[in-house]
Amino acid sequence: MSQEFQAPRGTLDWFGARAGLRRAVLDAAREVFESAGYGQVVTPTFEDTGVFARTSGEGSDVVRKEMYSFTDRSGRPLTLRPEGTAGVMRAYLEHMTRLPQPVKVWYEVPMFRYAAVQKGRYREHYQFGVEAIGSDDPAVDAEQIGLQRRWYERVGVRGLQLLLNSIGDGRCRPAYLQLLVSYLDEHADELCDECRERRDLNPLRTFDCKEKGCRAVMAGAPKITDHLCEECAAHFADVRAHLDARGVAYTVDPGLVRGLDYYTRTAWEWQWNELGAQSALSGGGRYDGLAEQLGGRPTPGVGFGAGVERLVLTLEEMGAGPATQRPLDVLFAVLADDARPRVHALMDDVRAAGLRCDAAYGGRRLKRALELADRRGVAAVVIVGDDEWGAGEASVRDMTTGDQRRVALETLAEELRR
Ligand code: HAM
């Protein structure tokens, strides 16, 4: 490649049709969630490193190997946001505890993770995410999942799988983890090195291993759903009842564990298996202990994050997707030099009249302008050559029929709108 600089590894440039598709899915997400009382939250791109280190978990991939951490010029340890929830909770504790509860927010921001780059996995990715903080009502969990279904339907993705689990809480999970660790110890020589390490750091993550041997072992492992305390079991039953009432189909997967440590109770992922190894379009769950980890009072919360890149990839592969930006209505070909200032000024009037227009800039040749109009799928071309300019007129060419008619410049905006 002759160009000296390229986008950093694992980052994407968005433009053209893909940028339109990206925006359309985000527009739909905002609309769907705002219909349920969610409002936007914007938090800083970087936070004190502790905000993430303390909450994602020492054993998580994010903290162990993926954070973009640095010290600023006054020696403060900072980290580029690898995930959205901890920063939103930090902001909630700082500013939002006195608002009507639960506080429901959405965000669409970039996340930074130094991950092994592959299809669907990048070092900068965007998430559309939501958080509802201040209620432990299972109706909130199910509402988010139901709204997500509506969002996915709205943008045209079909055939997704919804995996659902409850991973218990501080009351029931410790005893379960002991059971799990003993089971892992019994099968230690059948596990891969990484899973043996996970046994110490975060035994739940052994359910996530893709190795065949480990998968076989984990298929027989004790299941968290069989060891939930009464409260967690009742909460989970309620979430399911709410989903059933909405007709949201799901598979309870006791092996569904999330990659971040702050989760309690409900956990879920929407997956599209045909996407390949990175099949999770979104992941979420409850985090009733997170506020305390950040020094706040006990405050329940639930949310999810949806990868925008993966959703766009999915839509492209399905050949589906919402209508993106509509094409230009009019292209101006100003061939007469003297006419340029006046006609370019007129273009603003045309735009103010509600039409989308652009010019074939710098060009003096009609053929080039017509080719451009074709490529851009424009409905009409306005031509102002010496002849038209002399008469105070323009020729308007219908690009589908090829018909051309003369219109006075005075009334052009109005005529075009008609
Ligand atoms: P997460 O599962 O780590 O959860 O990420 C959420 C989603 O972001 C994933 O399902 C995936 O679609 C996308 N994603 C994650 N990492 C990458 C990557 N390296 N490249 C491309 N896409 C990626 C969270 O981050 C939680 N904060 C979600 C949450 C919000 N839970 C509760 N509230």
Summarize the structure.
38% of the residues lie in helices and 21% in strands.
Summarize the structure in words.
- The chain is elongated.
- It has 2 domains: 16-172 and 228-317, BirA Bifunctional Protein, domain 2 (2-Layer Sandwich); 330-417, Rossmann fold (3-Layer(aba) Sandwich), CATH 3.40.50.
- The protein has an 8-stranded mixed beta sheet with strand order 1-5-6-11-10-9-7-8.
- The protein has 418 residues and is of the alpha+beta class.
- The chain has 15 helices and 16 strands.
- The protein binds histidyl-adenosine monophosphate.
- Histidyl-adenosine monophosphate binds at residues 83-85, 113, 115, 120-122, 125, 127, 129, 131, 259-260, 280-285, 303-307, 309-310.
Percent helix: 25-40%
What is the fourth-level CATH superfamily of the largest domain? Bira Bifunctional Protein, Domain 2
Could you say which overall geometry the principal axes of the C-alpha atoms support?
A: elongated
Query: How would you classify the helix and strand content by structural class?
Result: alpha+beta
Oligomer: single chain
Any idea what the CATH architecture of the largest domain is? Answer: 2-Layer Sandwich
Whole-number mean pLDDT: 95
Q: Give the strand order, joined by hyphens, for the main sheet.
A: 1-5-6-11-10-9-7-8
Strand content: 15-25%
Bound molecules: histidyl-adenosine monophosphate
Structural domain count: 2
CA-atom Rg in angstroms: 27 Å
**CATH uppermost class of the largest domain:** Alpha Beta
Helix count, per DSSP? 15
Distance between the termini: 48 Å
Q: Which regions are unreliable across 5 or more consecutive residues at pLDDT < 50? A: none
Q: What summary fits the major beta sheet?
A: 8 strands, mixed
Q: Any idea of the CATH topology of the largest domain?
A: BirA Bifunctional Protein, domain 2
Number of strands: 16
